[in-house]
Design goal:
- The complex is a heterodimer of chains A (171) and B (282).
- Chain A is α/β, with parallel strands linked by helices.
- Helix content of chain A is 24%, strand content 26%.
- Chain A has one domain: Fe-S hydro-lyase, tartrate dehydratase beta-type, catalytic domain (fumarase, Alpha-Beta Barrel), CATH 3.20.130.10.
- The longest helix of chain A is centred in the first third of the chain and has 12 residues.
- The relative contact order of chain A is 0.25.
- Chain B has 2 domains: 101 residues, no CATH class; 126 residues, no CATH class.
- Chains A and B meet through helix 4 and helix 5 of A and helix 3 and helix 5 of B.
- Bound molecules: iron/sulfur cluster.
Chain lengths: 171, 282
Amino acid sequence: MLDLRAGDAVEISGVVLTARDAAHQRLIETLDRGEVLPVDLAGQVIYYVGPAPARPGAVIGSAGPTTSGRMDRYAPALHAAGLRGTIGKGYRSDVVRQALVEHCGVYFAAVGGSGALLAKRIVSAEVIAYPDLGTEAIWRLQLDRFPAIVVNDAYGADLYSTAKGEYRRDG
Amino acid sequence: MREIDISTVTEAVQRLCLEANYVAAPDVRKAFELAAEREVSPLGKQVLTQLLENMRVAEVERVPMCQDTGTVVIFADIGQDLHFSGGLFSDAVNEGVRRAYTGGYLRSSIVDRPVGKRTNTRDNTPAVLHLHLVDGDQLTMTMLAKGGGAENMSQMRMLTPGDGLDGVLNFVVETVERAGPNACPPVIVGVGIGGTFDSVGTLAKQALTREIGSEHDDPQIQEIEGELIQRINNLGIGPHGFGGRITALAVHVEIAPTHIASLPVAVNLQCGPAARLRRVTI
Ligand code: SF4
């Protein structure tokens, strides 16, 4: 994670977990009660996605990123519990960016609205917690060369603000 | 008086939902091709190319372009000389949505109540319906599948007449800037100006149902649209917020008469990558 810098284009291969609004709410409630999480977050990456149903024979349906900002309120606690990275789309709050610096984490963006294409880079998918949440359950995904861009690195840099500054024109 | 069986409505809605999710409309595709040519940022160009490839994959494999298959919003223009038989119009629309989303491998994204348990309805119903009575004996349905990312970044504000055109323009530009990458740019910006608190949001959504880049017939509105797209594309946000000159593919503005004390403005954002608009007349 320390090698990655904001603006780097990467291809991610390996296991990630999925979670979005409802799963995050449950994870945090579990932490608040001092109980053990149903998944081990140590060293893990969470992909913010609620996939579409798979066609017969397909691994998964369309599976692009959802807006990360909605998970800002939960992310710092999960980083404190060992989470190293997240994949989503859109701005992160100052508090989350600070948590990335503290816990050596990285936030990646995948291109929003390219879920059909991104699904082809997911080679296996299984639900591992909260199956009752359907698309919002926690899935374990095996990624193969999944394209993403580093937006926030462990050094506090933010691609969204620097990139905008570069192309901004006044007037 | 013409009579049609309500099952015709169900079938039409089902078709609209499936096609809208699987196949990018020609105007959307054209706008992306043009944008990919004109974008100067290398990363921005790459995003646009990736999104065009995504449209191709979705169409070939008959999978939704985006996993967020949206809230179904339908504007129905119903001819006064048309009679529906065999059931309720709104039931028929929802049945069409149900069939498309449960049978078409589309995600169900609707919860039954906004606060509290938020249980998924599991068939993406109900749709949001806007009914208008018009001349004649035909039914025209204009359907949008509206994703949450861009919808969440939409804004409305009750300005006052003293804020004037400048106040309106600044509010629109600020809304797009605040939305940034969250709305999955490049976006289409629907702006409603005038009317009342409740109607201005619908007006902004209606502005999104115009063909991308189509010219407004009112010269004053044309000018406003021209200024807005220039200011928005000067923001530097670019495709997916990775920096660039193409933040919006189009800005569509619609106006309505309003109260002497009022100047309502609504900005409804539509993500370009999943701009799903279809129209049918039966
Ligand atoms: S904003 Fe649009 S493109 Fe982005 S995730 Fe939502 S529906 Fe898909």
